[in-house]
Design goal:
Layout: H1 10-17, H2 25-37, E1 43-45, H3 55-67, E2 78-82, H4 86-106, H5 114-125, E3 133-137, E4 155-159, H6 161-168, H7 179-188, E5 191-195, H8 202-216, E6 228-233, E7 243-245, H9 248-252, H10 258-265, E8 270-273, H11 285-304, E9 310-313, H12 317-330, E10 340-343, H13 349-356, E11 363-366, E12 380-384, H14 388-395, E13 409-412, H15 422-425, H16 430-441, H17 450-455, H18 473-479, H19 493-496, E14 505-511, H20 530-539, E15 548-551, H21 552-561, E16 568-571, E17 574-577, E18 591-595, E19 599-602, E20 605-606, E21 612-613, E22 635-642, H22 652-667, H23 674-684, H24 687-694, E23 707-712, E24 725-731, H25 738-743, E25 750-751, H26 752-769, H27 774-786, H28 794-801, E26 811-813, H29 822-825, H30 833-844, H31 850-857, H32 871-874, H33 881-891, H34 895-907, H35 909-928
Parallel strand pairs: 1-6, 1-7, 2-4, 2-5, 3-4, 5-6, 8-13, 9-11, 9-12, 10-11, 12-13, 14-18
Antiparallel strand pairs: 14-15, 16-17, 16-18, 19-20, 19-21, 22-24, 23-24, 25-26
Length: 931
C-alpha cells in the first residue's frame, strides 16, 4: 500500500528534484492550497525570477499526494501549461521531462525517500507504463497524441495558446477528426490550464473560463473536477483576488527568503540611448550601419567590463540577424573570439536547440522569445525600447540570480519618442513606446528591479480589439459537431486571440524530394515528381527538429520571392500541393514542405531576402552532425534516398544502387526487406557502406538498439529501373496510430469477442480509478462490450482476413500490417463499423441510457451529428429483419440525430466528449497491448 503523502513533504520533494534548492514560501503555500482544496488559485502574481515554473513540480506532487488519500479534495490530473512562444513551450517540456526522468530513476530506489514515494504513487494511477506523461502541442511538429490515451495518469501538456485553445473548442489545429472531441472533453475536465503572462492572452483566458462555466453545468461536474484556469503574470496591474504569489510589501519588509530578496530587490539602473541611432527607424544604409555599430560598441564595452553574459534583445528578427553578423565580423581580428548564441523564435529547431544547449555563452542576441520562461542571467542588458510589460520581462533576465550588486540596462530609443511612425514601432504601437519611454523615466535609481516594477507597474498594453468575445452555448454546440463537413471551418481567432489580424503560426520544412529523373533542377515544379513526393512525406513525415517556425504572411512572402515553387500541406492524411485543390490552402497550425534547395534563409531563419538555401536536416547523423532530437514517436533515425537528389556523405552510385535494387525486388515480387537489399548490395560489393552508414551490426540490427525497417515508393516517372524513394527507419517501438490500431495488430488475429471483453474490463478499470458511480461504470462497460460489434459484418471480415484461414468466430483485428482500402474492394465509401455497432446494441436492448448508444456510435469520432449512410447502405443483404428495422429507425427517421442532440443537452457537449474519450482510451490501450 502506498504510504500517505502530506503537504509537509513538499519541501523535501522539491529540494530533491532541484539539487538541494528549497522552495520559496509562496511556492509551498501554493502547494498546500492546491492539495488542501483541490483547486488552483485563479491568479499567480510573482515577479520574473520568483520561480513560477515550479507549477510543474507542484502539480506532480499534488496529484501524487491526493492519490494516497482515502477521501478529500482531488486536484486535476492534467496540467496544461500555455505559453505564447514555441521555443518556450520546449523549455517547459524539458523541465517536465527532467522531473519525469528523476521520478523514473527513483522508482526502484527507496533510499530516495519522498521522490520514490511520489513515483510509486504516480505509477499506481496510470494504466500505461508512463508514471508521468509529458506531451507537446505546438506548431512545427505532429501534435503528441499519447496524452489522450491514459486519462487517469498524471499528465503535463506543454502548449501554445492557439494549440490549446483550438482543442478546447473541438477544432484542434493539426488534429484528426476522431481526436478532436476527445481532446476537447479531456481538456474541459480533470485539467488545469496555466496561462503564462496572461495579460498577453486575455481572450484565451476569457474563453477558457467560459468553457469551464459551461462544463460546470453538466452532471459530470459533480463527479470529475471541471477545468480550472490560472493566469500568471509578473506585472499585475491591480490587486487581484484569489491570488497567490509575491508582492512588493513582502519584499520590502524582508518577509521573503534572503536569496529571493536579492533576486527581486537589487537595482537595475536604466540608461536611455536616444542620440545614437535607432535601428528600426534607420532609413539609409549609412544610418543602419551606424545604429548597428552602436549596439556592437555597447556589447564589446560590456564584455571589456566583465559584464558577461551580455543580452541583446531586439524587436525584430531582421535586426537580430544584422547585429549577430556585425558582432561576428567585429571579432574576426580579436585574439579570442567571444561565444555567441542566437535565440530567435523563427529559427529552425535543429540549430536553435543546439544553441540553447551550449554553455559559457558570452553574448546572447535575441528577440521577444527570451521574455518568458527562459532561465538566462545577463550581466548587462541592451534592448530596443518596447511596451512596458515587455521591457519588464526582458529585465527579468538581467541579474536574474541577484548575484551582482547591480546590473545595467541600456534602452535603445528613437530620438523623438513622441514622433515614431507605425511601421518603425512594429510590433508595438507608437503610443505603447511613448508611454514606455515616460515610464522608464519615472523609475528612479532602482530602475527595472522587480520590486520597483511591482510598485510602479508598466503602462497597460492597448486593447487590440474593442471588446473580448463571449462564447455562446449555441456556438459551442456548432463547434462540437466535429464529424460534419461544414461549408467553411470556423475561424477561431474570434475566441482565442486578442487581435483579429489574420496572421497564423505555421511551420515550414525543407526536404530533398524525388525528381522525375537523375538530371533535374529540384526547384522547378516540373522537375519534382509530385505524386512520389506526396507518398514520401506520408512515409517520412516532417519531424520537430526540421521545423522553421513562421507565419502565413511570411510564408507567402517567401514563396513569392522564390517564384512560387511547389509546396505540400497535409490534408486528411494526404500531402497535397498547396493551392492545387479546395482546402489545400495554408491554414493555422499547418506544416508545409518545400524543396530543400529553395533560397530564403539567413542563419537558419526563414527570410524572403535570405541568400542561403533551406537544406534538409532530417538525418543530421548521416551528414556527420550532432543530433539529439527524436524522429517521430517511434523512430530515432530516418534515412531517405530519392531519385535525383544526392545526400551529403552518401556516394551517388550507392544511392542509385539502393533505388535500383528496390525496383528490382518489386518487379520480381520479392519482399523489399533489409535482408534482401543487403544481399543485393553484397552482389554489387557495396554492403560495407550500407552497414556503416546505417550503423548496423553483423545481424543487420541497429547498434543503438531497436529494429531497422524499410519502405519504398513506386517506380520513378522516367527512371523505370529505380523506385522514386526509399526510407530506412530505426524503430524503437511499433506505431500507434488510432485507425491502424482499430484494424491491425503486430501479432496473431484478435478475436472480436475477446477484444470487446478486454476493452470492457479496461473501461471498468478506468471508471473505477476515476471514482465514477456504479451506474456510469456499467454504462461504459456495456458500450465497450458492443463498440466493435459492427465488425462482425461479413464484408468487413473479408477485408480483415484477406484470404487468411477463417477462424471459428469473427475477428476484431487482422494480423496483417497493411490492408487495402475497404471502399475499393469490400465496402462502400464512408462505411463505418461503429454505426453498425450502435444499431446492433439498439436491436439487442433499446431501453438503455441514450449515452450508451452514443458512445458506441461515436467511438471513433464519427456520427457526432449524423452518419453519411442510411440503413440500406449500411447493412449487408443478409442482415436480419430486426436489425434492418432498427437501422431504419435510427438512421432514416432522424432518431440518431435526436439522440446526439439529447445527450448534448443533458450532459453538455464537453461532458459527452469526455465520456467518448474514456471509452476510446480503453480501446486504444488494449489495442496497443495486441489484444
Amino acid at each position: 500500500m502506498t504510504v500517505s503523502i502530506d503537504s509537509v513533504d513538499f519541501e523535501d520533494f522539491f529540494s530533491q528534484l532541484n539539487d538541494g534548492q528549497r522552495p520559496y514560501k509562496w511556492q509551498s503555500d501554493l502547494a498546500h492550497a492546491v492539495l488542501s482544496t483541490g483547486k488552483w488559485p485563479e491568479h499567480i502574481t510573482a515577479p520574473t525570477g520568483s520561480g513560477k515554473s515550479a507549477v510543474v513540480d507542484i502539480h506532480v506532487f499534488a496529484v501524487a499526494a491526493a492519490s494516497t488519500k482515502i477521501a478529500g479534495p482531488v486536484p486535476p490530473r492534467r496540467l496544461v501549461h500555455v505559453v505564447g512562444r514555441r521555443a518556450l513551450v520546449d523549455e517547459v517540456k524539458r523541465r517536465s521531462e527532467m522531473i519525469r526522468d528523476r521520478l523514473i530513476a527513483a522508482l526502484a530506489d527507496e533510499s530516495q525517500g519522498i521522490v520514490h514515494r511520489v513515483a510509486k504513487s504516480l505509477q499506481s494511477l496510470a494504466i500505461s507504463d508512463s508514471l508521468l506523461s509529458v506531451s507537446t502541442l505546438r506548431g512545427g511538429i505532429v501534435p503528441d497524441r499519447g496524452w489522450q490515451d491514459d486519462p487517469v495518469a498524471c499528465q503535463i501538456v506543454c502548449a501554445t495558446p492557439d494549440m490549446a485553445g483550438s482543442r478546447l473548442l473541438f477544432r484542434g489545429y493539426g488534429s484528426s477528426r476522431g481526436a478532436k472531441p476527445r481532446e476537447a472533453g479531456l481538456l474541459a475536465y480533470d485539467s488545469v490550464l496555466v496561462i503564462d503572462e496572461a495579460h498577453l492572452n486575455r481572450q484565451l483566458s476569457l474563453t477558457a473560463r467560459r468553457v469551464a462555466d459551461l462544463a460546470a453545468e453538466s452532471p459530470l461536474a459533480e463527479l470529475v473536477p471541471v477545468l480550472q484556469v490560472v493566469e500568471t503574470t509578473a506585472t499585475p496591474q491591480d490587486r487581484t483576488f484569489n491570488a497567490i504569489g509575491v508582492d512588493a510589501e513582502d519584499i520590502r519588509s524582508g518577509a521573503v527568503e534572503p536569496e529571493l530578496h536579492r533576486r527581486l530587490s537589487r537595482p537595475k539602473p536604466v540608461t536611455l540611448h536616444k542620440n545614437d541611432g535607432w535601428l528600426p527607424s534607420a532609413t539609409t544604409a549609412a544610418s543602419k550601419k551606424a545604429a548597428v555599430q552602436n549596439i556592437v560598441d555597447l556589447v564589446n564595452q560590456a564584455l571589456e567590463n566583465g559584464q558577461k553574459p551580455v543580452g541583446v534583445v531586439l524587436n525584430r528578427v531582421k535586426s537580430a540577424l544584422e547585429v549577430s553578423e556585425a558582432l561576428q565580423a567585429s571579432w574576426k581580428e580579436a585574439d579570442s573570439t567571444p561565444s555567441m548564441s542566437l535565440l530567435v523564435g523563427p529559427r529552425r529547431r535543429y540549430e536553435d536547440s543546439y544553441d540553447r544547449n551550449r554553455e559559457d555563452i558570452d553574448v546572447y542576441v535575441a528577440t521577444q522569445t527570451v521574455e518568458v520562461g527562459v532561465d538566462l542571467d545577463f550581466g548587462c542588458l541592451i534592448t530596443d525600447i518596447a511596451s512596458g510589460a515587455s521591457l519588464a520581462q526582458r529585465a527579468g533576465r538581467l541579474n536574474r540570480s541577484g548575484s551582482r550588486k547591480s546590473a545595467k540596462a541600456h534602452i535603445l530609443c528613437p530620438e523623438d519618442p513622441a514622433g515614431v511612425r507605425e511601421k518603425d514601432a512594429a510590433p508595438y504601437s507608437p503610443d505603447e513606446l511613448f508611454r514606455a519611454h515616460n515610464w522608464l523615466n519615472s523609475l528612479g535609481d532602482e530602475g527595472l528591479s522587480p520590486v520597483n516594477i511591482l510598485e510602479c507597474p508598466p503602462p497597460q498594453a492597448e486593447p487590440q480589439k474593442l471588446a473580448l468575445s463571449h462564447l455562446e452555448e449555441s456556438r459551442a454546440r456548432l463547434l462540437s459537431r466535429t464529424s460534419e463537413q461544414l461549408v467553411a471551418e470556423p475561424d477561431l481567432t474570434f475566441w482565442l486571440r486578442d487581435s483579429l489580424e489574420a496572421d497564423n503560426d505555421i511551420t515550414v520544412v525543407g526536404r530533398a524530394l524525388p525528381l522525375v529523373s537523375e538530371q533535374s533542377d529540384s526547384v522547378e515544379d516540373s522537375a519534382i515528381d509530385a505524386d512520389a513526393a506526396s507518398s514520401l512525406l506520408k512515409a517520412a513525415p516532417p519531424q520537430p527538429h526540421e521545423a522553421f517556425p513562421t507565419t502565413t504572411q511570411k510564408f507567402h512572402a517567401l514563396m513569392k520571392s522564390a517564384g512560387n515553387p511547389i509546396a505540400f500541406v497535409n490534408r486528411r492524411g494526404v500531402w497535397a500541393r498547396v493551392g492545387s485543390e479546395a482546402g489545400a490552402e495554408v491554414c493555422a497550425g499547418d506544416v508545409v514542405c518545400v524543396p530543400h534547395t529553395l533560397t530564403g534563409s539567413t542563419q537558419s531563419v526563414l527570410a524572403p531576402e535570405g541568400e542561403q538555401v533551406l537544406g534538409d536536416v532530417l538525418d543530421p547523423i548521416g551528414q556527420g552532425r550532432e543530433h539529439s532530437a527524436q524522429v517521430g514517436s517511434n523512430a530515432v533515425r530516418c534515412v531517405v534516398l530519392v531519385t535525383g537528389n544526392d545526400v551529403p556523405g552518401v556516394p551517388s552510385y550507392w544511392r542509385c544502387s539502393v533505388l535500383e535494387i528496390c525496383a528490382s525486388l518489386q518487379s520480381t515480387g520479392e519482399e523489399v526487406s533489409v535482408v534482401n537489399i543487403f544481399d543485393a548490395l553484397v552482389d554489387r560489393g557495396q554492403e560495407g557502406f550500407f552497414k556503416d552508414y546505417l550503423g548496423l551490426d553483423d545481424d543487420l540490427r541497429p547498434e543503438s538498439g531497436g529494429e531497422l525497417t524499410v519502405a519504398c515508393g513506386e517506380l520513378s516517372v522516367s527512371s523505370h529501373n529505380q523506385v522514386s524513394w526509399v526510407v530506412f527507419n530505426v524503430v524503437q517501438s511499433p506505431s500507434s496510430q488510432d485507425e491502424m490500431l482499430s484494424e491491425v495488430t503486430t501479432g496473431e488475429l484478435v478475436g472480436l469477442d475477446d477484444h470487446q471483453k478486454h476493452v470492457a474490463d479496461r473501461a471498468e478499470d478506468i471508471g473505477t480509478r476515476l471514482c465514477l458511480p456504479a451506474e456510469l461504470i456499467a454504462l461504459l462497460k456495456v458500450a465497450a462490450e458492443y463498440h466493435d460489434a459492427g465488425k462482425s459484418d461479413q464484408r468487413f471480415q473479408a477485408w480483415l482476413l484477406q484470404g487468411s484461414k477463417r477462424p471459428a468466430g469473427p475477428v476484431a483485428k487482422s494480423s496483417l500490417t497493411q490492408l487495402p482500402k475497404r471502399q475499393v474492394n469490400f465496402l462502400p465509401a464512408g462505411w463505418r463499423h461503429e454505426q453498425l455497432s450502435a444499431a446492433i446494441l439498439w436491436s439487442v436492448n433499446n431501453t438503455l441510457n441514450p449515452l450508451a448508444y452514443r458512445l458506441v456510435g461515436t467511438s471513433h469520432g464519427y456520427g457526432r451529428g449524423a452518419f453519411v449512410m442510411n440503413a440500406d447502405q449500411l447493412l449487408e443483404k443478409s442482415a436480419s429483419e430486426q436489425l434492418r428495422t432498427t437501422a431504419e429507425e435510427l438512421f432514416d427517421t432522424g432518431v440518431w440525430d435526436s439522440l446526439i442532440d439529447r445527450t448534448d443537452r443533458s450532459w453538455g457537449v464537453w461532458a459527452a466528449a469526455w465520456f467518448e474519450a474514456i471509452l476510446r482510451s480503453a480501446d486504444v490501450t488494449v489495442s496497443k497491448e495486441g489484444r
